[in-house]
Amino acid sequence: MQSTDHEVETEIKLRLSPEARAALEQHPAFNPPHATAPQTHREVTIYFDTSDYTLSSKGVTLRVRRSGRLRRQTLKVGCDEGLAPLQRGEWEWPVERDVPDLGRLAETPVAPLARTIHSDALRPVFRTEIERTARLLHPDEFTAVEAVFDEGRIIADGSSAPVSEMELELKTGRARSLYRLALDLLADVPLGLETASKAERGFWLHTGKVPGSRKASHISVDSNATTGGAFKRIVSSALGHLLANVGPAKRGDAEGVHQIRIAIRRLRASLALFGPHLHPTSLIGFNDQLRRLGGIFGQARDWDVFVLETLPIVAREIAEPARLDQLRGAAEMVRRRAHCGVSAELSAASFARLVVGVAAWTADSANDRTGLGDNALDLPIADIAPDLLDRMLSKVAKRGRHVDEASREQLHALRKAIKKLRYSVEFLSGLNRHQQVRAYLDPCEELQELLGTVNDAAVTPVLLERLRESGEGLVPAINAVAEWATMRGEKVRHHVSKPWHELCSAVPFWH
Fold first, then answer.
1. What single-letter DSSP state applies at residue 3?
2. Do the Cβ atoms of 266 and 215 come closer than 8 Å?
3. Is the Cβ–Cβ distance between 131 and 160 less than 8 Å?
4. Of 194, 222, 439, 469, which is most buried with the most CB atoms under 10 A?
């Protein structure tokens, strides 16, 4: 498939167990008349970079693949703003040797980078040895999808890691048809999403360094974009943010869990912002799935905050370190169980269905938005944005009435509404001057931080109650921390009024 200036690879990668492979081999989609006969061959692929990783540090992959006597050089670049999270830029050329020809990169976006690299500076970093079974699937008369089973290993510096996965790559047709095919397979076969490419896993194996968490990137929505196009870009960015943090979260990285929770909230905020113009059945269905997923990540995040942030503060303010150490040990066990739940959820077919489902919903919206929403999605986002932001602001105003006397539940609802307003303003910030946006976001962020501290203080006693069953010896520490949390929450509440009134007095800049 081609865009205006580069080739686009649209691919879904799924982990493949022996049971899943056997089930897929019998699936109607993998058999005539919907599929060609399978062909199996062996491939050896060598991945190249410089000694200081000039290419991989920029999200660029350069490889040469040998299958029999044939060799192909491939360049891949990471997802950019114009692509969905399951898409990458890809360029391929036949070559004569087992080393890359840098001259081939002259007509690609990495040409400036390639000109800084001498061919002698490239070196093989790792290789893959794969037995690949491929066939073409035809889910409809307009679409061809290459389905491959890859079994083998990644080899780097004497170490190796197994590979067992299925790739579904769109060859002809629309991306939406690929996603629909994947959803049909996921409904019948328990497959988990694979978010790391072979190249990424190879570099991890070579360097011994796994990537850390990643914050959300800035979203740039053009004022000339349609409302549907703006929605698609915002959702694609949030999905990309979510997928970038799957690996860290599965490894138990607290910040990775936090970033996925933020990505889920950003996705839900986008649904709330554009909600009046989205297809109601899809809107409700995806929002329910995201709410459930957010609850799982919320539990893990609550225990991360308690163990890694709250208890260290308490230790500085309450002079009972021995009891706190016992309490920390009991809390750490619960925290680890919560992280196991996170890892299991990210490996489940339900997570894969959610990601692919959202991608399918927004795919090709520029060509056909009937399944996405109403006619307003065809209008310029600059015309629709004021009404969308007004609606988010009205929810904040409603939940912030009598803020000084609000209950914990009311403050929590206000905090969630402010988050959605803040994310909505950030999503559409490109339509207005930076100074205007920043002046409006400052009180939002201050309120969000204060109300977050109030919420953490309110959640702490709830978590402590779960620890009472861990032993009578913890009761004094539990009571002391619960009292500290209550006092801290009340203290912080007194600081909420000022930024709240600043926000209320701020003139909405989008009018």
1. -
2. no
3. no
4. 194
Per-residue model confidence as pLDDT tens digits over 240-265: 999 999 999 999 999 999 999 999 99
In order of 180, 240, 377, the CA distances from 176 in angstroms are 6, 17, 18
Q: Say whether both 491 and 507 belong to one domain.
A: yes
- Residue 327 belongs to some domain of the structure: yes
CA torsion through residues 211, 213, 216, 217, sign: negative
Assigned domain for 219 exists:
no
Selection from 134, 133, 140, 132 nearest residue 34 by Cα: 140
User: In the structure, what pLDDT confidence band is assigned to residue 349 with cuts at 50, 70 and 90?
Assistant: very high
By CB atoms closer than 10 A (0-12, 13-18, 19+), residue 358 is buried
pLDDT, tens digit (0-9, with 9 covering 90-100), for 156-212: 999 999 999 999 999 999 999 999 999 999 999 999 999 999 999 999 999 999 989
For the beta carbon of residue 444, count every other beta carbon within 10 angstroms. Answer: 21
Decide the pairing of beta strands 123-137 and 192-193.
unpaired
The domain containing residue 234 runs over which residues? 227-379
* Of the candidates 107, 102, 104, the residue with the CA atom closest to the CA atom of residue 120: 102
End-to-end CA distance of the chain: 41
d(CA 77, CA 201): 16
Residue 310, both tokens? 């709250």
Q: Which residue has the tokens 């989609």?
A: 29
* Residue 66 bridge partners (DSSP): 44, 71
Concatenate the DSSP letters of all residues of 287-352 into one string: HHHHHHHHHHHHHHHHHHHIIIIIHHHHHHHSS-HHHHHHHHHHHHHHHHHHHHHHHHHHHSHHHH
Whether residues 348 and 412 share a domain: the answer is: no
Determine the angle formed by the axes of helices 227-244 and 349-362, rounding to 10 degrees.
Answer: 160
Residue % of the chain over a pLDDT of 90: 82
Q: Cα–Cα distance between 288 and 36 in angstroms, integer?
A: 38
Q: At what angle do helices 434-467 and 321-347 cross, to 10 degrees?
A: 110
Residues 373 and 415 in one domain: no
Whether residues 19 and 57 share a domain: the answer is yes
Number of domains in the chain: 3
94-to-53, 67, 78, 370, 378 alpha-carbon distances in Å: 24, 12, 22, 41, 42
Domain boundary among 379, 398, 426: 379
Identify whether residues 233 and 375 lie together within a single domain. Answer: yes
- Is 0.85 topped by the overall pTM? yes
Give domain status of residue 157, yes or no: yes
